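Hypothesis: this fold can be encoded by more than one sequence.
Test: take the C-alpha cells below, design a sequence, compare later.
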C-alpha cells in the first residue's frame, strides 16, 4: 500500500501537480497586468455579454492549437488537446476569480452579472498564460516537436497578437493616442511596424524556425510572413477593439486610426510569438 502511494506521488501525481503549478504560474504571470487594470474591471461591467461569449468561443480553437503546439503535455490526439484547452479555461477562470477576490474587485452584494463579466474578461488571457506557462516556465516542454506549417505559424502569430492586444486594448491610452495622431503618423507607423516584424522573422529563422535560405529572395519572406503577419495583427486588433466596444460612436477614419495604433503592439506580439514559441 505504501509502495502504491509512493508510486502515485512520484510516478503519476507529482508530474500532474507540477504541470498544474506551472499552468497557474503562467496564468498569473501573463494575466496580472490585466487583473490589476481599472479599465478591465469597468469593461467587465459595461461590455455586452454576447460579445464576451463570442470571445470565449473564439479562444477555444486557439487554445486547442496552442495545446497541440506547447501545452501541458505531449498529446497524441486532438481530443486530448480539446481537453487541455478546457482545463486551461478552467484554470484561467479559477485564478482570475481568486485574484479579483483578493484584490477586493469582487465584493459581497455585487450583482451576479457584474461578477461574471469581470471574471470572463480575465479568463481568456489567463487561459493563454496557463498553456504558455508549461513551455516558458518548464524545462520539459515539447515546443518545436510539432511539424511546422505555414498555417500553424500564422496561428502562432494570431495568438501573440491576441495576447498583447488584450493587454493594451482596454486602456484609454489607445483612444487618446489615436486621436492625437495625424494621417501622416499612421502612414509612418504601418511600415515601421512591419520593419520590426521583419526583424523578428529573421531572428526566428536564425533560431531554427522556418528557414530563410540564401537562395530565398528577401521579398518572399517579407510577403509571406511580414505582410501577412501584419494583416493578422490588424484583424486581431480590429476584433479585440470591437469586443471591447471601442468602435461604438467612432467615425470610420478614427476607427481605422485606433486599429493601426493597436496593431503596433499586436504586430510585435505576433512576431515575438514566432521567436518564443
Amino acid at each position: 500500500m505504501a509502495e502504491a502511494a509512493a508510486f502515485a506521488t512520484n510516478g503519476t501525481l507529482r508530474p500532474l501537480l507540477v504541470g498544474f503549478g506551472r499552468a497557474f504560474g503562467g496564468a498569473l504571470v501573463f494575466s496580472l497586468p490585466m487583473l490589476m487594470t481599472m479599465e478591465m474591471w469597468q469593461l467587465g461591467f459595461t461590455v455586452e455579454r454576447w460579445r464576451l461569449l463570442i470571445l470565449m468561443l473564439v479562444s477555444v480553437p486557439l487554445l486547442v492549437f496552442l495545446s497541440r503546439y506547447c501545452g501541458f503535455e505531449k498529446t497524441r490526439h486532438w481530443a486530448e488537446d480539446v481537453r487541455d484547452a478546457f482545463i486551461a479555461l478552467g484554470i484561467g477562470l479559477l485564478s482570475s476569480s481568486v485574484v479579483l477576490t483578493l484584490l477586493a474587485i469582487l465584493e459581497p452584494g455585487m450583482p451576479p452579472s457584474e461578477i461574471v463579466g469581470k471574471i470572463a474578461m480575465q479568463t481568456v488571457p489567463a487561459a493563454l498564460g496557463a498553456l504558455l506557462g508549461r513551455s516558458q516556465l518548464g524545462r520539459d516542454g515539447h515546443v518545436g516537436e510539432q511539424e511546422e506549417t505555414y498555417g500553424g505559424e500564422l496561428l502562432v502569430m494570431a495568438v501573440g497578437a491576441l495576447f498583447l492586444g488584450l493587454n493594451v486594448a482596454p486602456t484609454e491610452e489607445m483612444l487618446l493616442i489615436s486621436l492625437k495622431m495625424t494621417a501622416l503618423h499612421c502612414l509612418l507607423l504601418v511600415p515601421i511596424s512591419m520593419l520590426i516584424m521583419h526583424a523578428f522573422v529573421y531572428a526566428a529563422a536564425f533560431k531554427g524556425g522556418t528557414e530563410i535560405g540564401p537562395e530565398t529572395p528577401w521579398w518572399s519572406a517579407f510577403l509571406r510572413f511580414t505582410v501577412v503577419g501584419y494583416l493578422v495583427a490588424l484583424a486581431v486588433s480590429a476584433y479585440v477593439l470591437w469586443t471591447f466596444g471601442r468602435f461604438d460612436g467612432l467615425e470610420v477614419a478614427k476607427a481605422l486610426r485606433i486599429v493601426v495604433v493597436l496593431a503596433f503592439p499586436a504586430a510585435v506580439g505576433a512576431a515575438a510569438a514566432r521567436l518564443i514559441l
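The chain has ten helices and no strands. The CA atoms of residues 201 and 271 lie 7 Å apart.
Hypothesis status: open.
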